[in-house]
């Protein structure tokens, strides 16, 4: 089978490898669609701090069950599935306290261990989730990013009736804002400096989509929410200057939630947290329940993913993918790799 391996930054090789053998508890999946993530782009550039080469990338996959292990129940050949791409130890303190997404020994498929840019992928059945027959493989590849969003909103607590600002209208920001709307936020504002992304956000039903070029975040918040300001600010942009604007724009007893992957340390004015009791929350991927909620919200059409995929490439054209992303920052949203027919 064909498999694409990143051997070092900017370098990939196309391998012809045997189809993986599966154990009694495993499922073999014929991959159909695999999305390219922001973290994949960091890996390509050699900027991802928490991985090492070589690695087969790909953690946003959808495919069809090709074979099931002898002890597997609940899956059969031909089922449409996606994969929760986290391997955790189950024994460390975070795992035992219900936070396996921050397991001390966490390994993510496609980052720390083999991923899905491959014709077939074997995974324990416990990592596999069934997709409804009505869901397309394109949508299936967007379950993982949507699970990042359901995880982020779960981390915010009960958001019913709240004012929410999402910074950054890329795929993750868009999905976080949509999940906030679907979860009962009073008003959800999304900001960006890219008009295409803002237009897509508008089409997805996000309440207010604001171009912040030449504007202060604080002013946008006052204009959109009035004196109540923002209860929750969710950073999906990962830009130092914007983060500091968010700190300044946070209100007493508000929450500042970091979803973005920062590549470098950020200096902040700590008294603005301490004196105003601003809660800063980090969010790292998702739990199983977030994955299932993502599938449910998509199945119920409460999340619109139809505008999120900007480009398709066949796996055989994989070498063209990252240069395309690098040279089209204004138009690229989610790039999806097609595998097989
Ligand atoms: Zn991802
Ligand atoms: Zn653990």
UniProtKB/TrEMBL annotation:
Domain Enoyl reductase (ER): 9-303
Pfam family, one: ADH_zinc_N
SUPFAM superfamilies: GroES-like, NAD(P)-binding Rossmann-fold domains
Record keyword Oxidoreductase present: yes
Keywords linked to the UniProt accession: Metal-binding, Oxidoreductase, Zinc
SMART domains: PKS_ER
An example Gene Ontology molecular-function term: zinc ion binding
Named cofactor requirement(s): Zn(2+)
Entry-linked InterPro entries: ADH-like_C (IPR013149), ADH-like_N (IPR013154), ADH_Zn_CS (IPR002328), ER (IPR020843), GroES-like_sf (IPR011032), NAD(P)-bd_dom_sf (IPR036291), Zn_alcohol_dh (IPR050129)
Highest taxon, organism lineage: Bacteria
Cited PANTHER family: L-THREONINE 3-DEHYDROGENASE
Protein family (similarity comment): Belongs to the zinc-containing alcohol dehydrogenase family.
Protein name: L-iditol 2-dehydrogenase
Annotated source species: Propionivibrio dicarboxylicus
